[in-house]
Amino acid sequence: MFIGAIEAGGTKIVCGIGKEDGQIVDRVSFPTENPDVTIPRIVEYFRDKSIEAIGVGTFGPINLDKNSPQYGFITTTPKPGWSNFDFLGTLKTFFDLPFGWDTDVNAAALSEAVWGAAKNLDSCVYYTIGTGVGVGVYAEGRLVHGLMHPEGGHVPVKRHPDDAFAGFCPYHSDCLEGMAAGPAIEKRWGIKGSELPVDHPAWAMEAHYIGQALTSTILMLAPKKIILGGGVMHQEQLFPLIRSEVQKNLNGYMNIPEIVSGIDSYIVPPGLGDNAGLCGALALGLAALKQGS
Amino acid sequence: MFIGAIEAGGTKIVCGIGKEDGQIVDRVSFPTENPDVTIPRIVEYFRDKSIEAIGVGTFGPINLDKNSPQYGFITTTPKPGWSNFDFLGTLKTFFDLPFGWDTDVNAAALSEAVWGAAKNLDSCVYYTIGTGVGVGVYAEGRLVHGLMHPEGGHVPVKRHPDDAFAGFCPYHSDCLEGMAAGPAIEKRWGIKGSELPVDHPAWAMEAHYIGQALTSTILMLAPKKIILGGGVMHQEQLFPLIRSEVQKNLNGYMNIPEIVSGIDSYIVPPGLGDNAGLCGALALGLAALKQGS
């Protein structure tokens, strides 16, 4: 059995075919251009494939309310052509199949729970820290949505005492994304994060912000695993720094083994590595097939 | 059909009998003393009642992991006699009935979703702000637990610029509870909150802290309703101040009607008023009966 997967990012679209065990057997990618250009490419790729469902994990914000006439739309993105675009509805006119539909980060959280670092667990939180910060939440065996999907990249954070950087988020200036996403590092230090040495003070500052957000996440949701992906997290020296921040912040309050003694296997990189996104779309497609939606 | 309900607080225990529609038909309350004194009182109350299940919403922290030998225990409380006490297991030796078991705040969140301010919604977050701060999370139609239950009262918060108070939380000093619970107000201003005038600057400061926590909650979970209970929230002037803080913090980022134009009916007091706790235990009992657990 084969399932189609669409990982729609702001810069590129990855389409693939995968199996029930999470194995990706084929993939293709192309730049995210105007939907008039991009949709035909997606349709062309899947047209001759024997697939039983398609999952879409996409950039957002998106409408996830099945009772809304705008369900399946990309909503307020500045990306030309995609604002208020009926992404899911357009795909459905070409394929009479069950469709899964969620954000790229919720998809990644799901794939990590099904096949990755949170396998066999009923909860995890997935952070991607790169050009922006995104959060996917999986709790009690389900992806979490409410009025909309999580936008946890924009939570307020306390400033690091040595940090004079104003923050770059156009809405909140010094929220988590404004202080800790890749562009914040570059603007604060005048050099790309990937070019900073591993013992540069930038990383302790970065861990201060990420650790703070993770502390709140643990206190609010106590997920069974926290997974940190995205370009910034390729800086592996961040992991021990972030784990220390979390323990320092909690100060023994959540006295559970995963946090007190097992934190090295509690706050971890994606088990699926760079496949988390596409596998996430695959997992959404599989779930849609099972639900017949 | 009648269901038993136990609302176990740090100072008093309320036992009651209720019906499927949330109506409480009988209740009794007594101080929370040592379990040797308290358990027999609970047993005595329910002994001659024709009930089909019992729900327990209790102070914590508690063990909620059904695979743990300590499932049903009160864990690390300083309350004499209750630390590492098998509360649920002890009750089960007296009553061969399905038992519901969760924190008092999760119970309150559930009752508000079943009969109260979040009726017919599949998500809500319940805050109680009183002697301490507690949070119950209901998402995707389920109460949320992970490694343990939420402890969202202890999330980090940014200080108000005019606030020199150190905070009173023994673990984190200036976390939400340390800055915004009843004792913080009293220690900061030297007078009980209930004796401060409604236009005192204490309330704007209080709204700063609560509004910040709610902002994070909305960004992480986007619950369909936020319910604020507890003694501090009897100060009704706080509601408009908190709503303004949330809108100011989000700064138009979550552009959804509930927050932009409908916030007066989005951040609200408990629909069940002072019955939220006992009704919550009732709802836990009903849920246990349906699941046959």
Write structural notes for this entry:
2 copies of one chain form a homodimer. With 293 residues, chain A is an alpha/beta fold. Chain A has 2 domains: 3-104 and 274-291, ATPase, nucleotide binding domain (Nucleotidyltransferase, domain 5, 2-Layer Sandwich), CATH 3.30.420; 117-269, 2-Layer Sandwich (Nucleotidyltransferase, domain 5), CATH 3.30.420.40. Chain A is 33% helix and 18% strand. In chain A, the strands form 2 sheets. A 5-stranded mixed beta sheet of chain A has the order 3-2-1-4-5. In chain A, helix 3 (104-114) packs across helix 9 and helix 6 crosses helix 7. The interface between A and B is large, with 46 and 46 residues. Chains A, B: Its cofactor is Mg(2+). Chains A, B: It is an enzyme of class 2 (transferase). Chains A, B: It comes from Paenibacillus thailandensis.
CATH architecture of the largest domain in chain A: 2-Layer Sandwich
Low-confidence stretches of chain A: none
The CATH class designation of the largest domain in chain A is Alpha Beta
Main-sheet strand order of chain A equals: 3-2-1-4-5
Q: Which fold name corresponds to the CATH topology of the largest domain in chain A?
A: Nucleotidyltransferase, domain 5
Organism (chains A, B): Paenibacillus thailandensis
Catalytic activity (chains A, B): D-fructose + ATP = D-fructose 6-phosphate + ADP + H(+)
Keywords (chains A, B): Magnesium, Metal-binding, Zinc
Family (chains A, B): Belongs to the ROK (NagC/XylR) family.
